[in-house]
What does this fold into?
Amino acid sequence: MEIRHPLAVWMDGHPEISQAKLASDARCSEPHLSLILQRRRGVSMKLAQRLSVVTKGEVPIEAFLLDEQVEPAQ
It folds into this structure.
């Protein structure tokens, strides 16, 4: 069973915010955000902070820490 990234779950609850808008607001590329949502890329502490701010703290910084779910990109 696939474990979805907390940010992906948050996005489901906020359909008014597109992936492109979220990436722009967090100052990262849309492809990079896509890989984060797929748990194929980790994030820097600065990006984790920006994403947490964009989500108004609903997705905490800790949700972006690397774990065993992150796989190397093919």
